[in-house]
Design brief:
The chain has 244 residues and is mainly alpha-helical. The protein has one domain (20-243). Helix content is 63%, strand content 0%. It has nine helices and no strands. The protein has helices spanning 18-22, 26-37, 42-49, 56-74, 88-107, 131-166, 180-192, 197-214, 217-238. Helix 3 (42-49) runs antiparallel to helix 4, helix 5 runs antiparallel to helix 8 (197-214) and helix 6 (131-166) runs antiparallel to helix 7 (180-192). It is globular.
Length: 244
């Protein structure tokens, strides 16, 4: 009978479980996953109950926002990715990129075919609420779009997905590492989360370029917040609630 030589490595090796490999990605993905999954009932409420019970949609959105914010806070270990903070020149570039995104989002509307699989936004007109409830809902909506969504989306799309495409062991990839493949893949997947798929692809590419140029993930957060704020201003000025 042959015996292994003393000091030889064991014949079997331990294969890491899928769960162990995915665990580092959970804090990046969980807040956005919760935000998107809990949004599934909003369109149904607007379509079926929006006329008779308009207060249900704001109540659902406020609860959705509170839950997502709590989970984002629990996953705040990922916020270290926001450093270094962008320099003034990078911040100015981020603002310009955000305004460009808004122009694309509005300007391209109606000039590309819809993809039914991506769904469609159902506009909720807060004028139905009237008075203080209307103002409160608009304020809460602005907090969600300008303060929360940019944080959870940029951590997922431009930190996790961007780096994961470069190397599945994404934590070994420095923030700001952007390859052409990573930019294209992350932008295409970013588009699948938006009915406005064409401006979403272009937006993903713009923010990938911004990340590559500045090396700052927080510059992308600033740009995202500016884009959402400018779009909100357009919505409030024109009553184009479909963008909300």
């Amino acid at each position: 009978m042959n015996h292994p030589e003393e000091g030889s490595p064991p014949a079997a090796t331990t294969v890491p479980s899928v769960a162990a490999e995915l665990r580092p990605a959970i804090p990046y993905a969980l807040p956005l996953a919760v935000y998107m999954l809990t949004g599934g009932g909003e369109s149904w409420l607007v379509e079926h109950l929006g006329q008779t019970r308009p207060w249900l949609y704001p109540a659902l959105y406020a609860g959705r926002l509170a839950l997502t914010a709590a989970i984002a806070w629990a996953c705040r270990s990922t916020w270290v990715d926001f450093k270094p903070w962008p320099r003034p020149a990078a911040t100015a570039l981020a603002v310009a990129a955000g305004l460009l995104v808004t122009v694309l989002w509005v300007g391209l509307d109606g000039h590309y075919p819809a993809i039914p699989l991506l769904g469609a936004r159902v506009a909720f007109d807060p004028q139905r609420l009237g008075g203080a409830p209307r103002s409160a809902f608009i304020l809460v909506r602005l907090v969600g779009l300008v303060a929360l969504v940019p944080i959870i989306e940029e951590l997922f799309w431009r930190s996790l997905v961007m780096r994961w495409v470069v190397n599945p062991d994404f934590r070994t990839v420095p923030i700001g590492t952007v390859t052409l493949t990573a930019a294209v893949v992350s932008s295409l997947f970013f588009a699948t989360a938006h009915p406005e798929w064409l401006p979403a692809i272009l937006t993903g590419l713009i923010w990938a370029a911004l990340l590559a140029k500045t090396g700052s993930l927080f510059a992308c957060v600033v740009s995202h917040a500016i884009a959402n704020l400018a779009l909100a201003a357009y919505v409030l000025a024109t009553g184009s609630w479909k963008y909300w």
